[in-house]
Amino acid sequence: MADGEGDPGVFTATALPGDPRLLPTVTNAFLGTRVFRDILHAAGVYSGAAGDAHRADVPSPLGLRMAAPGARSPAQSFTLNTWTGTFRHTIQSPGYTATHQLYAHHSLVHLMAFSVTIQRLDGSTHPITVQLRSLFVPQSQDLHLTPGPDFQGAHYIYGQTLVPEVEGGPRPTVHMLWTPIPRSLTLGGEEQERCWQFLTAVAGSEEEAKRSYSAGLSLAAAGSLHRSHVRAWAALRRGCSVELDGPLALRQALHGCLYYLLSAVPPRDSPGVPFHGISPGGLSNGTRGEDYWGHVFWDQDTWMFPNILLLYPEAARAVLQYRIRTLEGARRNAREQGYEGAKFPWESAATGREVCPEEIYGAQEIHVTGDVLIAFEQYYCTTQDQKLFREDGGWELVEAVARYWCSRMVWSEEEQLYHIRGVMPPDEYHSRVDNSAYTNAVARRSLNFATDMARDLLLPVPEEWEDRARKIKVPFDEERKYHPEYDGYSPGEPVKQADVVLLGFPLMHPMSAEVRRNDLEMYEPVTDPAGPAMTWSMFAVGWLELKELQRARSQLEKCFSNITEPFKVWVENSDGSGAVNFLTGMGGFLQVVLFGFTGFRITRSRLLFDPAFPDDITKLEISSISYLGNKLEVTITREEIRMGVTETSRDPPASPLEAVLDSGQRFPLWEGQSVSFPTGPGWIQRSPSRTL
C-alpha cells in the first residue's frame, strides 16, 4: 500500500479491505454512506420503537462499482483524500483511465454526488465503455416508499418510517431524487474525455429535496459542483488545521481523525438545518444490529465535543442544541424513574427518551446526565455565550440537571455525606455500585456549574445545590492516596475502560500530583487491554500532565491497534468487534493532541497551557483555537510557544486577551501580531486593562 506519496492526509490503496465495514465513509451533517454500500442514512431519521429505534436504511443509488469489460486485471487504485473530502476509484486500462469520484456535498447538506470520468490516453478512435454495477433497488425495510413523478430528469420516491420511536410520536418522512444510472457509459470514438455527473438529493420535504437537486444541477452545468464542495470542505479543514512534526503514522492518524470527526459536524452556512447529534459510528453507520443502532451516547459530549469546541465553537453550539431539543424526553425519563429534573438517556435518538435495548444501562449508567452538563460548562467558559442560556433553552437544561442530581442523592447519617447508590460507572464490568467516584464527581461539578451559571444570570441559587455539592461523597483511600472506583472496590479488580482516570482529565477534580499518579498507576495495569479505543488516550493525557513522556507515548501507541488500513477507519475494540468508524476513539486521540500535548485546560476564567511532547514529536501547529471570540494561531516546539490572534468576533465583540506565564510575565495578544516565549506553563485570559 502506498499512502498518498507521503501526504499524511491522502490514503491510497490498490485493494480494498476484506471487511466491508472498514471501507471509508463520506458524510456531511445530514447524509452519510459507506463507499460501495447500497444504503445511506439521513440525520434524525430513525425507525423502530424504544430499544429497537435504529437509523432507517434509505436505498442509495451511490453504491455502484465501475468495471472495465474485457480488461484483464486492470490496475486499480482507491483513494480517500481528506483535504478534499472525496473518495476516488480509478481504473487504469491500456489506452484509457476511468475515475469514479464520490462525496457528500459539504455546503449543500441534502446532496450527495458522484461522477465518472473516462479519459482516452492514446490516439485511438474506438468507443470506450465502462460498466456500472449497482445493487440499488428503490425499496427499504424501514420506510414505506412510494414513487412520484420525475423532476428535472431525476427519479423521485418518498415515504415515512414504519414505526415511531415513541407511541403516537412522529414518523419522519424522506424525499429522494436521483439521477438515473445506466448500466454502462461510453466515450465516443471522437471524444478524448467526458465526465458524467450523478446527483442524489435527500430531505425531509419535497420542496427541500427539489431545491437541493436543482442547485446541484445548476452547479454541475457550470462545471463547479465538485469544486463548490471542495471549497467549502477545504475552508473547514483550514479553519480546523492541526499539524504535527513527527512520525508519518501519527500524522496520518491525526488527519484521518480530523476527516471523520469534521465530516460529522454541521457546516458554517447551514444554520436552518437542525443538528441530530453524533453517534459512536457516525451517520454512515447505525442500521439495525450494527454500531449501536446509530444512537447518541456520552461519547458525543465527553469524547468528541471538546475537540469540536476548541476548533469550531459554532458546531459545538449545534451539538448542545441537540441536547436542548431532547430535554423534554429527558424530563420524562427522570419522572418514570421517580426523580425530579431531567435524566438524559444512556442511548438517545430523536426524542431524548431512553432507547437503550438493555434496561440496566438506561437505569444505572446515569453519569451521562452530568457528562452532558460538562459540555455546556466547557462551552460557556470558552465562549461566554449567555444567549444560549438566557434565550435558547440552555438554562432550563442546567436547572433540570441540577434538580435531577439533588433528587438522586440520599443522605448518609453514618458518613454525614450525600451518596448516590445503585449505579453503573463508566467501567461497565461493575453494576449496582454505590458512590462511583466518577459519577459523584460529575454530579458535584454539575451542581457547581449550575450555581455559577445562576449567579452569572442574576438568578437565585437554591441552597441545596451548594450544600449537596459540598457534601457529596467522592471515595478516597487516605492510606493508599488514590480514588477507589466505588465503595468496596478492591485494588487489582479488572476495569473495562477509562473511569477513575477521568477525574484528573477532563473533570479536573481537585487532587495532588501524587494522587493523580497513584490513580494512573492503580488502574493502568488492571484496565482490559481489549477494552474500547478511547481509554488509552486518557492515560496518555494523564502521563503527559505528569511529564512522564515515554509512558504517555506507550499509552498513545496502544491506540494504533484500533486503526485499520488503508483508510484509517477506527474499530471500537482491537479485535475488530464493536462499532466501526469509531468516532469516540478518534475523539480521545484528538484530545491527546489538543489537550495533552498542549496542556490546554478550560477553566472558568482561563485557558491554561503547559505543553509536553513525546520524544518523536518536535512541533505542533494549531491554526485556530477559539477562545472568547478570538481565533488564536498557536505553534509549540520544545523551546518556544508562539501565539497570535488571527481573527476577532465583532458581534458580540471579542474579549481582548493576554498570555500570562507562571513567572508573572504578561504578553498582550493583539490581532495580526504574534508573541513568543519559552515553552512552559501559563494561561490565556481576558486582558483586565485593554479594550479592543
UniProtKB/TrEMBL annotation:
Keywords: Glycosidase, Hydrolase. It catalyses: (5R)-5-O-[alpha-D-glucosyl-(1->2)-beta-D-galactosyl]-5-hydroxy-L-lysyl-[collagen] + H2O = (5R)-5-O-(beta-D-galactosyl)-5-hydroxy-L-lysyl-[collagen] + D-glucose. Transmembrane segments: none annotated. SUPFAM superfamilies: Six-hairpin glycosidases (SSF48208). Residues 601-645 form the Glycoside hydrolase family 65 C-terminal domain. Residues 284-490 form the Glycoside hydrolase family 65 central catalytic domain. GO terms for molecular function: protein-glucosylgalactosylhydroxylysine glucosidase activity. The keyword Magnesium does not apply. It is an enzyme of class 3 (hydrolase). Catalyzes the hydrolysis of glucose from the disaccharide unit linked to hydroxylysine residues of collagen and collagen-like proteins. This is Protein-glucosylgalactosylhydroxylysine glucosidase. It comes from Ploceus nigricollis. The gene is Pgghg.
